[in-house]
Amino acid sequence: MPAVPAPIPADEAERLLTLRRYNILDTPPELAFDDIAHIAAHICDAPISLVSMIDTDRQWFKSIYGIETSEMPRAIAFCAHTILQENVFVVPNAEVDVRFAENPLVTAAPNLRFYAGAPLKMPDGHKIGTLCVVDRVPRELSIAQHDTLQALARQVVAQLELRRTVAELKEANGRLAALATTDQLTGLNNMRAFSEQLQHEYARAVRACTPLSLIMLDVDYFKTYNDTYGHLAGDLVLKAVADILSSGARRIDHVARYGGEEFVVILPNAGRKTSKIIAERLRTAIEKCTWSVRPITASFGVASMTPSIGDPRVLIEYADRALYRSKADGRNRVTVYVPQTSQIACG
């Protein structure tokens, strides 16, 4: 006679959704769960203890004490029976229990005889797994051991809740950090993120004695465009320009919205010649884009590190001067700021 699989719980679909929400399956060992399994084995005087999750067709072990395995088929899992219970489920002698007598865990290694499992009942009422202890000889739990196993199961649930809360807080903090450094209209880095990135790239360039350049650009006659066609149309232009810059820049470059219709691109490992080529490519891409209302162009200013630039803010000033020259000379052009010296500043 084969092993008798546990019936499927009435709330199986909802139970599996709850299990998925905790993102616990196939995760590495964690000390908090290992400690609980160890304590359960010690308190219940059992050689084997498990923190298990009952998945669709498998029993997966978050923590295991006393044997070497990571999962087994749900069809033969004692714990699949436990999640049908409200309290500790005890099998004093599996060898004489018709549900388990022919179970391969009983008839072959590890030759289980005694089993006691407490269901992991989550706050929404669904049971996603168990804390259990097993032995190779028939026996019973004392009242104290029974109550302690139940209490430790509640601690497993508490750890799962804590783990989930911490993960949600990290995710929320990540979203807040992104909001703090992202321009909401274009999705590019904002002024704050640009300033931090420029400081970082400047320090690295000085330390490694490598080139660093900066592009500043301004959408030509943007105020007139806004006044004529409205701010919604203007926003669409800014979004499109941001997309062009992101697509046209190198993977190592950093594109940001500087403010209003101004954008900046930090160019690590790019000297004057390379940065001018990149700026021309971006300018041409904007000019040749198919615009729905009227043609759009942009003016560019480029500056590269020299010994006279002892602060990244000076690089911004020089790029801004070059941008001003492009606008004064008729717009839709690239101007490179050329100081008296052109060597890279090294520290």
Structure description:
The protein has 347 residues and is an alpha+beta fold. The protein folds into 2 domains: 12-177, GAF domain (Beta-Lactamase, 2-Layer Sandwich); 191-336, Alpha-Beta Plaits (2-Layer Sandwich). It contains 10 helices and 11 strands. It has helices at residues 12-21, 31-43, 79-82, 104-107, 143-181, 191-208, 222-229, 231-248, 272-288, 312-328; strands at residues 48-54, 58-65, 71-73, 89-91, 114-121, 127-135, 212-219, 254-259, 262-268, 298-304, 334-336. The strands form 2 sheets. A 6-stranded antiparallel sheet has the order 3-2-1-6-5-4. Helix 8 (231-248) crosses helix 9 (272-288). The longest helix is centred in the middle third of the chain and has 39 residues, at 143-181.
Task: Lay out the secondary structure.
Elements: H1 12-21, H2 31-43, E1 48-54, E2 58-65, E3 71-73, H3 79-82, E4 89-91, H4 104-107, E5 114-121, E6 127-135, H5 143-181, H6 191-208, E7 212-219, H7 222-229, H8 231-248, E8 254-259, E9 262-268, H9 272-288, E10 298-304, H10 312-328, E11 334-336
Parallel strand pairs: 10-11
Antiparallel strand pairs: 1-2, 1-6, 2-3, 4-5, 5-6, 7-9, 7-10, 8-9
Helix pairs in contact: 2-5, 7-8, 8-9
For this structure, what is the CATH class of the largest domain? Answer: Alpha Beta
Number of domains: 2
Estimate what percentage of residues fall within beta strands.
Answer: 15-25%
* CATH architecture designation of the largest domain: 2-Layer Sandwich
Order of helices and strands: HHEEEHEHEEHHEHHEEHEHE
Beta-strand segment tally: 11
Low-confidence stretches: 342-347
- Whole-number radius of gyration? 33 Å
CATH topology of the largest domain: Beta-Lactamase
**CATH evolutionary superfamily of the largest domain:** GAF domain
Q: Quick check: average pLDDT?
A: 94
The main sheet comes to: 6 strands, antiparallel
Morphology call: elongated
Strand order of the largest sheet: 3-2-1-6-5-4
Distance between the termini: 80 Å
Share of residues in helices: 40-55%
The total count of helices amounts to 10
Structural class, from helix and strand content?
alpha+beta
